[in-house]
Design a protein that fits this description.
Strand content: 15-25%
CATH topology of the largest domain: Rossmann fold
Largest sheet: 6 strands, parallel
CATH superfamily of the largest domain: NAD(P)-binding Rossmann-like Domain
Structural class: alpha/beta
Oligomer: single chain
CATH architecture of the largest domain: 3-Layer(aba) Sandwich
CATH class of the largest domain: Alpha Beta
Strand order of the largest sheet: 5-4-3-6-7-8
């Protein structure tokens, strides 16, 4: 099992001090019982023998003899200190191998455990530290880069543990019975449900206190009937982002415009699908027509219809093609008059560049439209360009950060 690096913070100064004591004693003229000629040896030889104290403890050198009292005293201190320091380092390494986590975590209680160290974990920690800066947090992952580990420790003051949370032996040593909540934010959906299932069997008191993020909405919906899904809180980051977008931008527009609205979803991946789901829950009476544009539109619409039965909208247009091609917008304009009202056009493909370019072109073509361009990470550049052209730029990461449920961010 991987282990975290040993902390040598105080050992390096101690090692340098003992080495300096030994070398100083030898340079002052102290001789050794097994090396009587060392008094006449050069400085490099004396330095070599001083380093040997950390390995053999002076057993092959003999004991200090003759020379000044202070020199012999310094050498005796190094004789005892150097091997003790080496032994303590070895003992700590053995403790790490035999029990890498229990001795560090046994005092932590009422804390949050996060499984996974990716971008979603960073986003959650940013929101958490604004709301609750002092809640103890443990981050667990199979592999953590040194840079990410340093970021987690330094910026968010969390404890980082390397290990596989699906292993029962590892689970039993994390003191999860003392945790307030557990968030499964890893990349492997199956592993998240597998780990949650094992944890619930071992610690049934954590029921409804395990939060599982699933990258695949389709898989999450398929698992909704399982016991582990019912005993946990299940979510997808795009769902949080879609809720935030609907609440912050779309509802106000619906209330402001008198006729029923036209909504164009240009890009129908996970983000577009979750927006459609939100609209079906909260805005069906405000919408006249939903238009969907995507390279794989027909198949994706069939999948969504199969899982959600989204048949509540009066009119729906589905066009298959590239949003960057003018022809697809010409085809749409033949079906819907986008100049007649104040339509909402959401550019939600996975390409921030294409979304921004298309949004500028569409704003010139339909100046009355509310146009929203999606990027993944927050971008000041995209925001400035959007303000210049009257376009709203939204970041998936920022929307997720702003829409974590408040009860997730406190004890």
């Amino acid at each position: 099992m991987p282990i975290t690096s040993i902390n040598f913070g105080w050992r390096w100064p101690a090692a340098i001090l003992f080495f300096a004591f030994s070398l100083t004693g030898l340079l002052m003229g102290v001789s050794l019982s097994e090396r009587p000629n060392i008094e006449t040896a050069d400085t490099l030889t004396k330095a070599y023998y001083s380093l040997g104290l950390f390995v053999m403890g002076g057993l092959d050198l003999g004991t200090p003899q003759n020379g000044p009292f202070m020199g012999r005293l310094l050498l005796w201190i190094a004789y005892f200190g150097a091997p003790i320091l080496a032994a303590s380092t070895l003992i700590e390494a053995l403790v790490n191998v035999l029990s890498p986590h229990r001795w560090r975590l046994h005092k932590i209680k009422n804390h949050i455990v996060i499984v996974g160290s990716g971008e979603l974990t960073i986003t959650f920690l940013k929101a958490l530290r604004v709301k609750s800066p002092k809640i103890p947090v443990i981050v667990i992952d199979n592999q953590v880069s040194k840079l990410r580990e340093h970021e987690l420790r330094a910026q968010f003051a969390v404890k980082v543990v390397v290990g596989d949370v699906t292993h029962s032996y590892f689970i039993n040593r994390l003191n999860l019975d003392k945790a307030n909540k557990i968030l499964m934010l890893g990349e492997d959906n199956f592993q998240s449900y597998e780990a949650a299932n094992k944890i619930l069997k071992r610690f049934p008191s954590l029921k409804n206190n395990i939060i599982i993020h699933c990258n695949s909405i389709r898989f999450m919906r398929s698992m909704s009937g399982s016991r582990v899904a019912k005993d946990c809180i299940n979510f997808n980051s795009y769902q949080l982002a879609a809720k935030g977008l609907t609440k912050q931008y779309l509802i106000n527009h619906f209330l402001k415009t008198k006729p029923k609205d036209v909504v164009v979803l240009a890009g129908f991946g996970l983000f577009g699908q979750t927006i459609l789901e939100e609209l079906s829950l909260f805005a069906t009476k405000e919408i006249d027509t939903i238009a969907i544009i995507d390279k794989d539109a027909q198949r994706r619409v069939l999948v969504v219809d199969e899982q959600l039965k989204l048949t509540k909208f009066c009119n729906r247009e589905v066009l298959e093609g590239d949003i960057s091609h003018p022809r697809i917008w010409d085809d749409l304009s033949k079906k819907i008059d986008l100049n007649h009202s104040e339509p909402i056009i959401i550019l939600g493909t996975g390409s921030a560049e294409e979304n921004l370019r298309a949004s500028i072109w569409l704003k010139e073509k339909y100046p009355n439209a509310l146009i929203i361009s999606r990027s993944h990470q927050p971008s000041k550049f995209a925001q400035e360009v959007g303000q210049q052209h009257g376009i709203y730029n939204v970041s998936i990461t920022q929307l997720v950060k702003e829409n974590f449920p408040q009860e997730w961010l406190s004890l």
